[in-house]
TrEMBL record:
Keyword set, alphabetical order: Aminopeptidase, Hydrolase, Metal-binding, Protease
GO biological process entries: proteolysis
Protein name in UniProt: Aminopeptidase
Claim: Membrane is one of the keywords in the record: no
Keyword Protease part of the UniProt annotation: yes
InterPro entries, per database record: M29_Exopeptidase, NicX
Record-level Gene Ontology MF annotations: aminopeptidase activity; metal ion binding
Length: 325
């Protein structure tokens, strides 16, 4: 693919979303399953802003949320900025948490391909959309959350007043991180409270686009059954392979807010697509939860209704406040 086509997106990531400044040390964290031109495009953009980029290439992670090798984690802690175009997400890792705690700014570009920097979600006006995500995060706080969607999802859970998080696609201040090109608001439900069924009909991290809906039945917060054909079995095997009981626990509910994003089979764009919501299994300790697991697996569904304490926040995938304005 033409290297020049990635340049505008790479510059947007570096200049707008990470706000790289002259003299800053930037670690570009990637792995062998990501096209090398992605890291090259980002490195050129860093140099254009006066920063100094070092590309660190690690083996492909076995699952999203798996910890990077220790030398990689050390490099992350020493950086001013971390740009992470990886084949699977490193956003939900202790290495990312520790690097941000040390003052780094981090942008995760999970399941990244060259197209990620060329078209789709990367075309969003992240600064303009940030207040929308922040406002929804404030409203996504209460005691009881109900989630229903056109495919048959019917879930209820408690939030216990936990604060939600706005992912704006911007990490411009020390000690902040975001995924890009996703824009979303998300929350960690109280552990063990989710009851009902989630029907995933858009995409799943690692597996990509869903060919046939996957029905996951929850009891006491735990995914008990996976129904729906070959991908349902593959999903169950992936969760089981993590080898940890918390990998089966519902850990997140998020709402996509990027109007430029499309569901394309790459989770970092899919989960941020306006008109969708997503749930996750596995870890959530870095955004207010108590589930520690070597996995964080996002799953996306179309046209949700989201109700908190009886207040509709989203109807058919559209924000109630935006629809009425």
């Amino acid at each position: 693919m033409n290297f020049a086509l990635m340049a505008p997106g790479a510059v947007k990531v570096v200049r707008t979303c990470a706000a790289v400044r002259p003299g800053e040390q930037v670690v570009i964290l990637t792995d062998v399953a990501v096209p090398h031109r992605v890291a090259e495009a980002l490195a050129f953009a860093v140099a254009a802003e006066g920063g100094s980029a070092v590309t660190v290439t690690m083996p492909r992670p076995r699952r999203p949320g798996e910890e990077p090798p220790p030398p990689v984690a050390e490099a992350m802690k020493r950086a001013h900025v971390i740009l992470a175009p990886t084949s699977l997400s490193v956003f939900h890792t202790a290495a990312a948490r520790d690097a941000v705690a040390a003052g780094a700014r981090m942008l995760a570009i999970s399941e990244c391909r060259e197209e990620t920097l060329i078209r789709g979600g990367i075309d969003a006006d992240f600064a303009a959309r940030a207040p929308v995500a922040e406002a929804l995060a404030r409203r996504l706080c209460g005691d009881r959350l109900e989630l229903r969607a056109r495919g048959g999802t019917d879930l209820a859970m408690r939030l216990g007043g936990r604060a939600a998080v706005a992912n704006t696609g911007l990490a411009t201040r020390p000690g902040t991180r975001a995924g890009i090109p996703t824009i979303e608001a998300y929350v960690a439900p109280l552990e063990g409270t989710a009851e009902g069924v989630a029907v995933v009909d858009a995409s799943v991290a690692v597996l990509g686009l869903v060919a046939a809906p996957i029905a996951i039945r929850f009891a006491s917060g735990r995914a008990e059954t996976f129904e729906g054909g070959a991908q349902a079995r593959a999903l169950q095997d992936l969760v089981r392979a993590a080898g940890h009981p918390n990998a089966f626990m519902l850990s997140e509910v998020g709402i996509g807010l990027n109007p430029q994003a499309r569901v394309v089979g790459r989770i970092i764009e899919d989960e941020g697509t306006y008109g969708t919501c997503h749930i996750a299994l596995g870890s959530n300790t870095h955004f207010g939860g108590r589930l520690d697991a070597p996995l964080h697996l996002d799953m996306v569904m179309w046209e949700p209704d989201v109700i908190v304490d009886g207040r509709p926040l989203v109807r058919g995938g559209r924000l109630v406040e935006e629809a009425s304005s």
